[in-house]
Automatic annotation (TrEMBL):
PANTHER family: ALDEHYDE DEHYDROGENASE-RELATED. Pfam families: Aldedh. The keyword Signal does not apply. This is Gamma-glutamyl-gamma-aminobutyraldehyde dehydrogenase.
Length: 496
């Protein structure tokens, strides 16, 4: 990456022409729904216009996916052959890594270094992992009486509508598409209207990798129009959604009002990060807490946005985080030296600023940040922000902010810490810092969260499942368990 200077990326950005069509049945189509602008949060400029799907385009994409599932080759291919095509797609993503990282950084504002090194690495690894897994799962034949044979098989669940947000546009799409395709399903991807460009590139590369027409379709458009049409469509068998809890509820209603399609939800979070005085390294705990909340501009479903710290070390830890916030380089996402880029856009930035004002009004202490940063004219930047003396009843402690805003709450004993950690409607992730093995086990069991990180945060790989408890969702992405979303169990009982 040495040659990849700010100048290099800025020049490449000028030459980028991502196009903006839908991908339906293997061909790129403008549709009849007009087009919407895609604005770069780094400087507020319009990057391009993208076709805007209405019900007609969604219908066409679902019909293409339905045909590809009901009578196309994909679900009938040998699993190893499906795997080979997914691995080929991983190779193509690797070849196009620069262009994809640049597109993501431009459309949603994350630092190019993170887009290239973290997001693209994850996306490539996801397609490779599920490609390798495709022929390594087996069905069951339970013990039966001597006069019978029973088979329990997993069959592809059908046509999958994947609706995803903008914060990790390709990783989150990949976590759905790769296991769905490995299982033999066909897919309609509806990316966020704030990050549609990278999804189209992925769709093109999938065709180049050998995916038959109609197996992966991409439709762009507004959530309440295109997303809703997918959610209500009678020919969609499964919806795999990542996004806010509010929109997750809509998808459950759409399913109830249509064909009772399976609905898998990866939703919001307000994750607690508990630091005990016996943490193995308090400096590391503080540095990781800061990294966790400011990484990706705080636009992380798993962001450790509630720091629960023992009162005896609260000042020391908070001071260290405030210092780190002051050193953080907020800047142009295309500058490889930038540590925090632009928030996804003005609407979202205004929302986050609203949360900050509410925090000040409700009496929390603003330790640093709280205002716009202006490294590039026209861009949507925010200072890294830390509040302490936050009360558990305040909005800062309860609502998902989805920005670089940390709320620090002090506690006096472990039971209080666990009660505070669980006092949320969400249950996506949690952190815990302690040197005591028993405490580590006891507390991680007591935390109602899909993932608990002990003496680290945001660690893991594709072997472990990811998803939420409570109102953070259901089902799991990643790992072999993701296949459960995209397959149906069938029992065949043969009387001999
Ligand atoms: P969002 O819920 O507004 O949008 C997500 C997707 O749903 C987009 O494609 C959007 O177009 C679509 N959509 C919006 N309104 C819709 C409607 N009425 N009907 C159908 N579809 C609709 O979320 P966002 O702002 O894009 O992303 C931020 C949210 O996503 C946060 O709450 C965050 O926690 C969550 N998230 C969760 C995870 C996870 O894995 N649990 C990961 C990343 C983000």
């Amino acid at each position: 990456m040495l040659e990849m200077t700010h100048e290099h990326w800025s020049k490449r950005a000028e030459g980028l022409n991502p196009g903006g069509a839908h991908l339906i049945g293997g061909s790129e189509e403008a549709g009849s729904g007009g087009a919407f602008p895609v604005v770069a949060p780094r400087d507020g400029r319009v990057l391009t216009h993208v076709a805007d799907a209405g019900a007609a385009e969604v219908d066409a994409a679902v019909a293409a996916a339905r045909r590809a599932f009901d009578s196309g080759p994909w679900p009938r291919l040998a699993p190893a052959e499906r795997g080979r095509i997914l691995i080929r797609l991983a190779d193509l993503l690797e070849e196009h890594r620069e262009e994809l990282a640049l597109t993501i950084s431009l459309e949603m504002g994350k630092p190019i270094t993170d887009a290239y090194a973290i997001e693209l690495r994850a996306v490539i690894a996801t397609f490779r992992w599920y490609g390798q897994l495709a022929d390594k799962v087996a069905d069951e034949s339970p013990h039966t009486p001597a006069d019978a044979l029973a088979l329990v098989t997993r069959e592809p669940a059908g046509v999958v509508g994947a609706v995803v947000p903008w914060n990790f546009p390709l990783t989150l799409a990949g976590w759905k598409i790769a296991p769905a395709l490995a299982a033999g399903c066909t897919v309609i991807l509806k990316p966020s209207e704030w990050s549609p460009l990278s999804a189209l590139l992925l769709g093109r590369l999938a065709g180049e990798a050998g995916l038959p027409p109609g197996v992966l379709n991409v439709v762009n458009g507004a959530g309440p129009v295109a997303g809703r049409a997918l959610g209500l469509h009678p020919d969609v068998d499964v919806v795999a959604f990542t996004g806010s809890t509010a929109v997750g509820r809509h998808f459950l209603r759409y399913a109830a009002d249509s064909n009772l399609k399976r609905v898998w939800l990866e939703l919001g979070g307000k994750s607690p990060n508990i630091i005990l005085p016996d943490a193995p390294d308090l400096d590391k705990a503080a540095a990781t807490a800061a990294w966790g909340i400011f990484f990706n501009q705080g636009e992380m479903c798993t962001a450790p946005s509630r720091l629960l710290v023992h009162r005896s070390v609260a000042d020391q830890v908070t001071e260290a985080i405030v210092r780190r916030a002051g050193q953080l380089r907020v800047g142009d996402p295309l500058d490889p030296a930038t540590e925090m880029g632009a928030l996804v856009g003005e609407t979202h930035l205004e929302r986050v600023l609203g949360h900050i004002s509410a925090g000040v009004r409700e009496g929390a202490r603003l330790r640093t940040g709280g205002g716009r940063a202006r490294p590039v004219p026209g861009g949507s930047y925010l200072e890294p922000t830390v509040f302490d003396q936050v009360d558990p009843g305040q909005r800062l402690a309860r609502e998902e902010i989805f920005g670089p805003v940390l709320s620090v709450l002090a506690f006096d004993d472990l039971d209080e810490a666990v009660a505070l950690a669980n006092a949320t409607e969400y249950g996506l992730a949690a952190g815990l810092w302690t040197s005591d093995l028993s405490t580590a086990h006891r507390v991680s069991r007591a935390l109602r969260a899909g993932t608990v990180w002990v003496n680290c945060y945001e660690e893991g790989d594709l072997t472990v499942p990811f998803g939420g408890m409570k109102q953070s969702g259901n089902g799991r992405d990643k790992s072999v368990h993701a296949l459960e979303k995209y397959t149906e169990l069938k029992t065949t009982w043969i009387q001999l």
